[in-house]
Specification:
single chain, alpha/beta, 10 helices, binds adenosine-5'-triphosphate, transport, ATP-binding
Amino acid sequence: MYILEVRQLTKHFGGIKAIEDVSFKIKEGDIVSIIGPNGAGKTTLFNCLTGIAIPTKGNIYFMNMEISNLPSHRIAELGIARTFQNIRLFSEMTVLENVMVSQHTRVKYGLISAIIRGGNYRNKEQIITEKAFEYLELVGLENYANTMASNLPYGNQRRLEIARALATEAKIILLDEPTAGMNPIETSEVMSLIKKIKELGKTIILIEHDMRLVMNISDRVIVLDHGVKIAEGPPEDVKNDPLVIEAYLGRE
Ligand code: ATP
């Protein structure tokens, strides 16, 4: 089943064609990487998918529901979460509190409300705290629960961002350069984490410059150049596509 469909998406900023007539479909449970040179339109695409940018033209469907013009909080509630290229955490809150705040995004609709409504009621905050610990364990941050987010080492701040995205109970997780600024060991740890998230049944869309990571974990790769989709397919096909080599990989 396709969980996301983008039809002829276009986003212009004045005379700048950031995204031009881009279409693709994403299958539920896949890891899809968006690659392309600087300024190709990758972040603008994420901004359109999450309601941060309003498309100039085109349609976006999430689980067959059109979300093209919905505000970002509504899209988050429906089940699309993201991390940012520049980490955005509540720096004056603890690691645990950062995750708990994200869980509140879905309290009205998600698992937590179902537990509470189901009569298995203990204490809302206690349930949320326990669940938050599970997310911290998943990303390997359980020993940092009471650390102030601003005091976390950089690589762990990126993991916390991922935990926060997961805590919204989103079906699609958008990761914007999750390994930016990481050393090779941290990068392979994030690679394992992304595989674990896939095993949870999540769909992952990834903007990533590390080609080893992209080729290793992606089910499909979409290549943008100057706002236009120039290739799409399994990693092996994309890697050998002459247009892609010319536009991107050849310049590495
Ligand atoms: P990078 O890899 O450098 O992050 P990108 O592929 O994410 O690049 P975008 O950031 O989406 O590319 O930018 C695509 C184009 O749109 C660029 O020419 C950029 O300057 C332009 N652009 C993006 N956001 C805006 C904006 N808010 N106002 C004007 N132009 C913008």
